[in-house]
């Protein structure tokens, strides 16, 4: 994923057009995803506690990213709480 053409370019485009809250939330999710990749490359398995913790952090970071994106789009509070 990180070497796929366009992955970093999309992050840079986002930094240009998105509000700071979205840029920061997307960066947080990206960092956790990268940490997860590094952990797996180092030999961890999906059963390891470290992997499970990172998976939980990624889920939380992604949920936060969705929330700030929905708020930026003007979504109702009932939608942003998902």
Summed up, what is this model?
The protein is mostly helical. The protein is built from four helices and no strands.
Question: What report would you give on this structure?
Answer:
The chain has 82 residues and is mainly alpha-helical. The protein has helices spanning 7-17, 20-41, 49-72, 77-80.
Topology (SSEs and partners):
Elements: H1 7-17, H2 20-41, H3 49-72, H4 77-80
Question: Which characteristics define this entry?
Answer:
82 residues, mainly alpha, 74% helix
For the record, give the distance between the C-alpha atoms at the N and C termini, rounded to a whole number. 26 Å
DSSP, total strands: 0
Global structural class: mainly alpha
Helical stretch count?
4
**Residue share in β-strands:** under 5%
* Overall form: flat
Mean pLDDT over the residues: 89
- Rounded to an integer, what's the Rg over CA atoms? 14 Å
Major beta sheet summary:
none
Enumerate the spans where pLDDT stays under 50 for 5 or more consecutive residues: none
> Roughly what percent helix?
over 70%
What string gives the helices and strands in order? HHHH
């Amino acid at each position: 994923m990180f070497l796929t053409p366009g992955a970093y370019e999309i992050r840079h485009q986002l930094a240009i057009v998105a509000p700071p809250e979205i840029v920061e939330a997307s960066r947080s999710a990206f960092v956790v995803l990268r940490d997860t990749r590094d952990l797996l490359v180092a030999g961890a398995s999906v059963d390891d506690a470290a992997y499970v913790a990172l998976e939980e952090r990624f889920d939380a970071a992604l949920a936060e990213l969705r929330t700030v994106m929905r708020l930026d789009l003007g979504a109702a509070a009932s939608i942003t709480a998902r």
